[in-house]
Amino acid sequence: MESLKDKVVIVTGSTAGIGEATALLFSKYGCKVVITGRNVEKAKDVSRRCEEISPNKYKNLVILGDISDDSHRTELIEKTLEHFGQIDILVNNAGFSIPVNVLSDGFISAYDRVMDVNLRSPVLLTRLALPFLISSKGCVINVSSVATNRTVNESFVMNFT
């Protein structure tokens, strides 16, 4: 994929699962990847593996933090621009679920947390990145996935975002 060579890609939630695989694939195609997540050891491991498979041996940028934190989202954009000078692709991948019954006492706090990470954060991060994506004629990729082995009432919070 020659057209991806040298593109700057932010992949949220890139320390595990779909985000990790996405970061590795973009690295394989010669992109400069921004690794994000909350776990420092996993981030270092993903970054190392991305650098190993990068045809240009690019050094990735690792930015740790909670994607639902406003200051982290701002830092993510600012540090990417400082380090690479542009943003070409934003992959909104970070997300999670909380298995909770809709009738339980903790439902509202679980609902708020899941909506904050899975819906609010991608919208606000995209809003911050958009001027730079327009400038680079870049794109936004929003990722969603669902897996459950629970009945409807226990998986409600997992599946509504």
TrEMBL record:
Q: Which InterPro entries match?
A: NAD(P)-bd_dom_sf, SDR_fam
Recorded source organism is Leptotrombidium deliense
Protein name from the UniProt record: 3-oxoacyl-[acyl-carrier-protein] reductase FabG-like protein
Signal peptide, first to last residue: none
Highest taxon of source: Eukaryota
